[in-house]
Amino acid sequence: MSLETAPFVPELASPDELRAWYEILVAVSVDFPSSPVPSYESYVHQLNQSTSFHGLLRRWDAREEGRLLGTANAIFPTDENSGLALISVRVPDRDRRAGVGTRLLRAMLPQIHEHGYRAIAGTVKAGADGERWANALGFQTVLQRSSHHLDITSADPALWQVEPKSGFRLHRWTDTAPEDLVQGFARARNAIADSPAGESSYRHPNWTAERVRQYEAKTREGGQSHRYVVAVDERGGTVAGFTEIAIVPGQWSHCTQEDTAVLPEFRGLGLGLAMKASMMRWLTADLPRLEQVRTTTASENLHMIRVNAQLGYRTDYTLATVESEVGALAARLDSRGPRAT
């Protein structure tokens, strides 16, 4: 196979090239049953984003005689994760085991090295081709996360009729935190750092009010809408916890449950369940086309998995976070020769 890899710039791509990238996404989606596939228009909108909240976003593809065989992207984080590049490689089953993914990895490494990143991490399906490929290249599995979905069309709404304990009130907003709550909200966001992280090098952001505003601006720029429910301690006005949902315009049938966290001094009071239940009541009342909510939770986080089950979530599969030092990975690839598979 004569492979060619090259950087891919979506805004310079032809409609046929964009369609080919979308078809790769559709082809690899069979590995993730029950996970909805975004519409072509929504996917292209996201593809044209050159940055994420974490940092710069760059893309590559692999072709043989013009036919697209695989795609890849790398995020170059700043701040807490400035030494950890986050990558994704997609190769459909029909073109696997022929060196496509490894060639894409080789194509990314020079830029990762030039940016000064010491480690590289990605997420693959545990026990499947992606994890076997990564482990064969020397990546170590450092964290496992369980993927769950809530099927709104078959779930019992009675599961979402949960109110917070006396002394707490729930507050909702879309996209922009109220000025009187943003400081407390930032503190509550930092509680996610207590969640199980295995041996992963990834570090959660150090949230401040300023960083919350930056995140809000970045999500709006990317075309997303985020909804929040927080629990407020009525005795002192402390934001005791929060939960977050991300909605991508054009993907009206499904959304993503993002972080949920409660400050240590308020844990064990059922606030996580109450906030997430309130979010489900809000979503189903407001978004009649919504059919599914998806989320991932560290497999060690048995408490949150139980909370999700109480709301009607079902477990689909396990995801593995894999990591390698950049220098060690480059050396291993060099030892395999120019056509590593």
Automatic annotation (TrEMBL):
An annotated Gene Ontology molecular function: acyltransferase activity
Keyword tags: Acyltransferase, Transferase
Domain of life: Bacteria
Transmembrane segments: none
One Pfam family hit: Acetyltransf_1
Top class in the EC scheme: transferase
InterPro entries recorded: Acyl_CoA_acyltransferase, Bact_Acetyltransf, GNAT_dom
Residue intervals of the N-acetyltransferase domain: 7-163, 186-336
EC nos: 2.3.-.-
Record protein name field: GNAT family N-acetyltransferase
Organism: Streptacidiphilus alkalitolerans
